[in-house]
Every structure is written in structure tokens, then in C-alpha cells.
Design brief:
The longest helix is centred in the middle third of the chain and has 27 residues. Strands 1-3-2 form a 3-stranded mixed sheet, with no helix packed on it. The chain is mainly alpha-helical and about 375 residues long. Helix 1 packs antiparallel against helix 6, helix 5 runs antiparallel to helix 12 and helix 6 packs across helix 12. The protein has one domain. It has 17 helices and 3 strands. Helices cover about 70% and strands about 5% of the residues.
């Protein structure tokens, strides 16, 4: 039976949409007053100008300084052609993120065997939130709202994943979650984004590939499948909104990751507290002493596959559309299958595994060989 709290959490996502809004922050159409922190020098590129609302009908212009992009130096130091080089760098970044996410299935399986699943999930996201909390001081109030919204959507996606794994198979949960690759182009099409049409067909090919990869032997539908359907909806909303927020607030990758981590930690911890109770510090210490490998799994999932992957994802989505990102993310089950075979000893399967992998790779090549999007530097 589906936990009633899951339904309330799904409603929470709808309320957040209404409360925080899906659209980018709109500046007043006819500002009464426009102030400037300093006269911009001649020939300042338009992307170096920052426009911030001060009041309902007042905006302030300023020239972006190094502080706006200090945390992006590792990806900003690109040579030459940003419209081409940074696009391919962003694609490579997202494939690396997909590989990191692919390790999650094996890591979470280890965590569930060693400790209570909900408690481990709460500790994982609390670790991520604590590590990123200092970055929140750099985040303007308007950007904070966007980051919290993305985090709340992702948190509901994670919770539906946890609940589904208790009631259905991991393969079906992974396949249903991969439907975000179709959901995101639909959201972009509904919002009038031209890039959505080019991503829809590759997304459908990628979905077929994931189906072959994950669903070698189908089991009858159950209530867990219905719960799992919240994954593509809310993860898709999270990717879509993150793409908009990162383009609206360039140079704030780390603070946005902090806001997302905080929202996920609060929602997941509240869910764990309401269902099974939060683990106590003494309980965590005892579990770590009894099973030292637990600490490594928590650090890996809390920092590498949550914080580091979110930073890379946030930077890459400044360049790529969310629709293209989800097509690249469709390689996650392929990486998950490979890691499960190496780390956990699961079999690679038969012809369906090879056919599914081929379709996923074909979808990615199809998408990336289309006309590249006009890109800002990462």
C-alpha cells in the first residue's frame, strides 16, 4: 500500500510550483528608475552587465566582476571557441555525471544491506547539505528561491524512488525513472522552447534502449510502479527548472547547489522522521564502528554522487538545454549495469543488454550531432 505521506509530498511539488513560479524572474517592463553602481566602460560585452531588481519598478545595472565567476574558474578557462568547445565540454561533463549516478545503484544496495534505507538516505543528504551550507551566503534571495524549488522537486523524486524500491524491482524503478528523458522535452515544448522538438525523437530512442537494458524479464504491474511514476515527473521538473535557473543566475553554481542540497536534506529528513525516525548520532557511530565500509558508502553517495555531481550538472546546464541533458543522462543505466557487474557481481545479461546499450549510444550520437546550441561559456 502506498504511504499516504508520498501523496502529500506530491502535492507539495504542485504547491511549490504555484508559490515560487516556473517562469524566470521578470524585470519591470517600464522601470521608473534605473541606477548604476558604476558607469560601464566602453565596449563592455552585454553578458558582463548584471541587472538586478531593487524594487517593484527600480532596477540596478552593474558590471560583473571576478567575484561572480570565481567558483567557475575550472570550467571557465576554455580556449577559443566557446560556442563549440564549451558545448562539448558540457556534454563530456554530463556523461561523467551519468557515470557517477551509475554507481549509485550499487552503493545504495550496499547501504540498504548494512543499514536502514531511509536512515541512510537522510544521513547521505544531510552530509551533502552540511558540506555545501557555507556557499549559501553568496546566494541572492531570488536565486535562493529557484535553488530551493529545484531541490524540492528532486527530493520528491528521490522519495518516490525509495518507496518504489520497497514495492517493485530495481530494474523497473530505473526504467520508469529514465522516462524523465521524455518528460523534459515535453515541459520545454509546453513552455515554448524551440530546442524541445529536436530532443524528443532521440529521447524516445534512448527510452527504448533503457527498456531493453533494464527489462529483460517483465514482472506484473503493482502499486510500486505507480509510485515510481513520480520519478520522471519530479526529476524532469527539477532538470527543467535547473536549466532555467542556471541561465538566469550565471556564476552562482556553488550557491545554487547549496540551496538544492538544503531542500533535499530537509524534505528527506522530514520523511524519514515521519516514517521510521531519524538515526541518532549514537546510532550512526555504532553502525560505523560495526561496519566500517558504511562510512565509505555514505561519503561516496553524500559527496561524490550528490555534491560533486550536482556542481558539474549545474555548470553544464548553463550551456546545454535540459532536453539534451536528459538524453545524455540516459547512459546512466548503461554505467549502472557495468558497475553492478564489476562491483556487485551481477550478470550483464543477453542480447537485450547489447541492443539496449546500442540504442542509448545511438540516441546520444543523434542528439549531439544535431546543430549545436548557441552557448555561453561554462
Amino acid at each position: 500500500m502506498v504511504n499516504p505521506l508520498s501523496g502529500w509530498l506530491l502535492c507539495l511539488g504542485c504547491l511549490l510550483q504555484g508559490a515560487l513560479g516556473f517562469t524566470s524572474h521578470a524585470l519591470p517592463r517600464r522601470p521608473r528608475l534605473c541606477t548604476s553602481s558604476a558607469a560601464p566602460p566602453a565596449a563592455v560585452p552585454s553578458q558582463s552587465l548584471w541587472c538586478a531588481p531593487v524594487a517593484d519598478d527600480v532596477v540596478q545595472l552593474s558590471v560583473a566582476d571576478d567575484a561572480h565567476t570565481a567558483e567557475d574558474l575550472s570550467l571557465d578557462e576554455l580556449d577559443g571557441d566557446s560556442s563549440n568547445g564549451s558545448v562539448w565540454l558540457a556534454r563530456g561533463t554530463l556523461l561523467t555525471v551519468a557515470a557517477l549516478y551509475g554507481t549509485n545503484y550499487s552503493s545504495i544496495k550496499v547501504l540498504q544491506e548494512m543499514w536502514d534505507g531511509d536512515g541512510a538516505a537522510a544521513v547521505r543528504f544531510i552530509i551533502a547539505a552540511v558540506c555545501t551550507l557555507p556557499w549559501l551566503v553568496k546566494l541572492p534571495k531570488e536565486a535562493l528561491a529557484g535553488g530551493l524549488q529545484v531541490g524540492a522537486f528532486n527530493a520528491i523524486g528521490y522519495l518516490s524512488q525509495f518507496e518504489a524500491l520497497h514495492q517493485t524491482t530495481a530494474s523497473k524503478t530505473a526504467f520508469i525513472g529514465s522516462l524523465a528523458v521524455v518528460a523534459v522535452p515535453c515541459f520545454e515544448a509546453l513552455s515554448g522552447q524551440a530546442s524541445a522538438a529536436g530532443a524528443l525523437l532521440p529521447a524516445m530512442v534512448a527510452t527504448a534502449g533503457v527498456m531493453l537494458l533494464e527489462l529483460g524479464g517483465l514482472t506484473p504491474p503493482n502499486s510500486g510502479d505507480l509510485v515510481a511514476l513520480a520519478q520522471p515527473l519530479f526529476f524532469g521538473l527539477g532538470y527543467w527548472r535547473l536549466g532555467a535557473v542556471t541561465k538566469q543566475w550565471p556564476g552562482l553554481s556553488l550557491p545554487l547547489v547549496a540551496a538544492q542540497s538544503l531542500a533535499v536534506a530537509v524534505v528527506v529528513a522530514a520523511y524519514a522522521f515521519a516514517t521510521h525516525g531519524l538515526p541518532t548520532p549514537a546510532g550512526v557511530t555504532a553502525a560505523l564502528r560495526a561496519q566500517p565500509a558504511l562510512g565509505g558508502a555514505l561519503v561516496w553517495t553524500g559527496i561524490m554522487t550528490t555534491v560533486v555531481s550536482a556542481i558539474m550538472e549545474t555548470k553544464a546546464l548553463r550551456v546545454l538545454s535540459a532536453a539534451e541533458a536528459t538524453v545524455l543522462y540516459s547512459t546512466e543505466p548503461l554505467f549502472a549495469t557495468l558497475f553492478a557487474a564489476v562491483l556487485v557481481g551481477e550478470g550483464l545479461g543477453g542480447w537485450s543488454t547489447g541492443a539496449g546499450a546500442a540504442l542509448i549510444l545511438a540516441a546520444c550520437l543523434w542528439r549531439v550531432l544535431l546543430k549545436p546550441p548557441a552557448a555561453a561559456p561554462l
